[in-house]
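Fold Annotation — chain and its backbone
Next Lines — sequence and tokenised fold

***
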Amino acid sequence: MRQLARTTWTCLVILLTTLGFAGAQGFGFSPTVMNINAAGNLATQTTMVNAGRTPARFTVIVRAWKMAGGRSVLEETRDVVVNPANFTLAPGASQVIRVGLRKKPGAQELTYRVFVQEVPSEGTAKTTAAVGEGLTADLNLAVAFSLPVYVTPPTAKAAVTTTVKRDGADVLVTFANAGSKRATYNNLTALLGGTTRALSSFAVLAGADYTVRIPGLARAGATLTLTYRNADGQDVRETVTVP
């Protein structure tokens, strides 16, 4: 019975990842990134809009967000208060979600993630999935959203070192951030000769590192051009040499 429950949850996570966001097109946020000035009133907000045709119920939780070993780590926290923690969003309506910091910021940027999770109801879309051993289960495809929250001191800065390695036909690019502020890589694109690779956007938190695999561009001695938009909204062009 425990094995069945574990397998069902795994299928649910996969389905939410592959299908949930396609069905989330009726919901939107403004802004999608929440910034708190560490020298200000330590509060921020975002507005969620329901552009769909049916009401939906949501619950909101906050997690401390760190990076370890190149991966995101989420931990329970009491540093942040969110209001409301539960709400129903009618078609065409909007809801302001307010976030406030309870602790005193230091010199390094603090990072959190706000999770807005739909509460499944009778009207939530369902699908039937195989859960192993000839069994199936009806799963509610509730949508979920994750929004970053940055508490940034005025003097905080990113300090990133970029290193490149070859791994077969691929290139591994590691971004190590020794600074006190995140480094953001939005719409990252790698260009080598006439070949372009579009990569997912990501952030490298203060004191962390992150490695990106770029397939098929491991040409020794070649110059790899990286273009992206940083946390300040500036377009950046960076060149590195493939070893």
